[in-house]
Amino acid sequence: MRLQKYLSTAGVCSRRAGEALIKEGRVKVNGDVVTEMGVTINPDSDQVEVDGRPVKTVKKKEYILLYKPVGYVTTAKDPFDRPTVLALVRDANVRVFPVGRLDINTSGLLLLTNDGELANRLTHPSYGVEKEYLARIHDIPTAKVLNQLARGVQLEDGMTAPAQVRLVKGGRPTSQVSLTLKEGRNRQVRRMLEAVGHPVVGLKRLRFGSLTLRGMKVGEWRRLTAEEIRALRQAVKVT
Ligand code: URA
């Protein structure tokens, strides 16, 4: 995009006035003053300043909730060319990125957004946003094991924080347990259950903060409602 168009898109001034600012040497791109006309910039990667103040374009914020199926990776590009969650929301026609991650073999609720500030807070452990999972595990866990999961399990990257744990359905060869965590380490649920001797055979995220999968089918996506966005922002104190 041309620099003067960028300045007008960002609401700094008109395109004509932008040309004047450039000629006067008041505009910097990536730290260097630009005085010639016709310079193009990449709004996603170049840093533009006017009179030493950064210029930001206001992008429309998008919030998409996806019911992720098993078999999709939560990265933008997969070195093994496996299908990505971004491919599932392509028809939304927006550039969004996943908030946190679900393993390829985990299904369930995944939020995607271009709201970086909200995404950072939602994944930061200090805000303690609850993530609820339903795990199918080998065998029936004893009350002692459930207690241990709730109090904390020693993993190679440290002790896990207290969690809510409930036996949903005990059975053989598999049982179902619900775990609600306030942290989100890599493969945490699988590692916790493995550590207490009950490997996971299936994992689904049912809830992320106030968001649930209610009414959705696997593979579907939808935009959040204004009320859902407001509740998320309030939960992590984004004003
Ligand atoms: N915990 C896991 O083990 N996997 C996930 O995908 C999410 C949480």
Description of the structure:
The chain has 239 residues and is α+β, with helices and mostly antiparallel strands. It has 3 domains: 3-54, Roll (Structural Genomics Hypothetical 15.5 Kd Protein In mrcA-pckA Intergenic Region, Chain A), CATH 3.10.290; 63-125 and 210-235, Alpha-Beta Plaits (2-Layer Sandwich), CATH 3.30.70; 130-208, Alpha-Beta Plaits (2-Layer Sandwich), CATH 3.30.70.1560. It has helices spanning 3-9, 15-23, 85-88, 116-123, 143-151, 188-195, 226-235, and strands spanning 27-29, 32-33, 48-50, 53-54, 63-68, 97-98, 106-113, 131-138, 154-155, 158-159, 164-169, 174-181, 200-208, 211-212, 221-223. The strands form 3 sheets. Strands 5, 6, 7, 8, 11, 12, 13, 14 and 15 form a 9-stranded mixed beta sheet that branches. The chain has a 4-stranded antiparallel beta sheet with strand order 2-1-3-4, with no helix packed on it. A two-stranded antiparallel sheet has the order 9-10. Strand 13 (200-208) and strand 14 (211-212) form a beta hairpin. Helix 1 packs across helix 2. The radius of gyration is 23 Å and the shape is elongated. It binds uracil. Uracil binds at residues 102-103, 106, 187-190, 203.
CATH superfamily of the largest domain: Pseudouridine synthase I, catalytic domain, N-terminal subdomain
According to CATH, the fold-level topology of the largest domain is Alpha-Beta Plaits
* CATH architecture descriptor of the largest domain: 2-Layer Sandwich
Biggest pleated-sheet summary: 9 strands, mixed
Helix content percent band: 10-25%
What is the arithmetic mean of pLDDT? 94
Poorly predicted sequence stretches spanning 5 or more consecutive residues: none
What is the global morphology? elongated
Ends apart, CA distance between termini = 31 Å
Strand portion, in percent? 25-35%
Ions, cofactors and other bound molecules:
uracil
Classified by CATH, the class of the largest domain is: Alpha Beta
The number of helices is 7
| Total domain count | 3
| Number of extended strands | 15
